[in-house]
Amino acid sequence: MTTTTFDFDDMLAKIKDRQWALADIDWDEPGAETISPELHAKLKPFMADLMWIENVGARGFAAMAKKAPTETLKDIYRHFHAEEQKHANAELALMKRWGMLDGDKIPEPNINVKLVIDFLDKYADGMSMSFLGTVIPMLEVALDGALIKFITDEVPDPVAQDVFRKINSDESRHLATDYAVMDLLGHARIRKLAIDLVGGWLNPTLMIGIFSYVPLLNKMRDNIVEMGVDEEKLYGAMRKYKNVGERSAFARRLPMYQIVKYHGSMVINRNHPYHLLADALVKLTAHIPERLLGAQPTWSKELTYEPAA
Ligand SMILES: [Fe+2]
Ligand SMILES: [Fe+2]
């Protein structure tokens, strides 16, 4: 079996070296006027969702930090957790710059993002490393790391371009690490992988997770189409997840990887009957009454557009 050698210490050093802060950016620099009223209208809900998806990533990495098998990896995930929060705050600062915020109120995400946040908040800490380590890379490749790339060409503001570049560079390290961890997890004995898989699926909360995740992908696809971006870009990003297994025989051994990959192949096939279900779930979830959802998690209070470190 072939395996890639990945130096996690080296990655941690690189992460520390490439830190940036909201204070590094001049948020009042000219260029905000390049956002036309039409773009402004489309961008506003998109940015609100994007900002909350960063928090989905942050919550996932917080859970990973607890599960990680080595001190280096724990430290890497703690940095990624903070970086996702920084991405959220930077996006909030862009929204403020573009006059999209209503006073000091944090914008609300769409219902599907809310459901996933609610799910992760309740259950992420109870999930196994091999489960989190195979699901989070898909979220990153399709949503967290990808959405900004999709809109980069649509947003002419130079300050946004600068912010997007910084975020993209963080995301490249998230992805490289995500993939290396999948390879690492795939080294476990088949017996252990099987136990993790069965244990994961016996957990009834997993179904809640699936019913949150399925409509989220389709909802975000609708949103990027709304922004004028070709949905093929999303599918192209999702195909990258499949490529990981083509490169690493160990990642391929992970049962959850096979499941997430199979699910991805249905998502990127627009003619697959899967979309009847997923689109129906988007419509259905849109009717969930507000009162049934939990209050916004306490950690979301940390969100701020203030240019503190
Ligand atoms: Fe991010
Ligand atoms: Fe990320």
The helix/strand order is HHHHHHHHHHHHH
Q: What is the number of beta strands?
A: 0
The level of helicity is: 55-70%
Bound molecules: fe (ii) ion
Largest sheet geometry: none
- Poorly predicted regions are none
Mass-distribution shape: globular
Protein name: Ferritin-like domain-containing protein
Organism: Antrihabitans stalactiti
Would you write up a description of this structure?
Helix 2 (37-67) packs parallel to helix 4. The mean pLDDT is 87. The protein is 68% helix and 0% strand. It has one domain: Ferritin, CATH 1.20.1260. It is mainly α and 309 residues long. The radius of gyration is 19 Å and the shape is globular. Residues 54, 57, 84, 87, 144, 171 line the site of one fe (ii) ion (FE2).
What is the topology?
Elements lengths: L7 H10 L19 H31 L3 H27 L13 H13 L5 H16 L2 H6 L5 H28 L4 H13 L2 H22 L5 H16 L1 H4 L2 H13 L6 H12 L24
Helix pairs in contact: 1-3, 2-3, 2-4, 2-5, 3-7, 4-9, 5-7, 5-10, 9-13, 10-12
The protein binds fe (ii) ion (FE2) (2 copies).
Q: What is shown here, in short?
A:
The chain is an all-alpha fold.
Provide tags for this entry.
single chain, mainly alpha, 13 helices, 0% strand, globular, Ferritin-like domain-containing protein, Ferritin-like_SF
